[in-house]
Amino acid sequence: MIANNYTFLGKGITCIDAGYVRPQLAAFYMLEHEGEVAIIETGTSNSIPRLMHLLDEKGIRPEQVRYIIPTHVHLDHAGGAGGLMQLMPQATLIVHPRGARHLIDPSRLIEGTIAVYGEEKYHELYGEILPVEAKRVIGAEDGLELDLKGRKLLIRHTPGHADHHFCVWDETSCGWFTGDNFGLSYREMIGPESRYIIPTTTPVQFNPEKLLASLDLLMSYQPERMYLTHFGLLEAPENYVDILRDSIKDYVAIAESHADAADPAAAISQDLAKKEESALLSIVPEMSAEQASELLAIDNELSGQGLAIWLQRREA
Question: What is the DSSP string of the chain?
Answer without folding.
Answer: -EETTEEEEETTEEEEE---SSTTS-EEEEEEETTEEEEE----GGGHHHHHHHHHHHT--GGGEEEEE-SS-SHHHHTTHHHHHHH-TT-EEEE-HHHHHHHHSTHHHHHHHHHHH-HHHHHHHH-------GGGEEE--TT-EEEETTEEEEEEE--SS-TT-EEEEETTTTEEEEETTT-B--GGGB-SS-B--B----SS---HHHHHHHHHHHHTT--SEEEETTTEEEE-GGGTHHHHHHHHHHHHHHHHHTTTSSSHHHHHHHHHHHHHHHHHHHHSTTS-HHHHHHHHHHHHHHHHHHHHHHHHHHH-
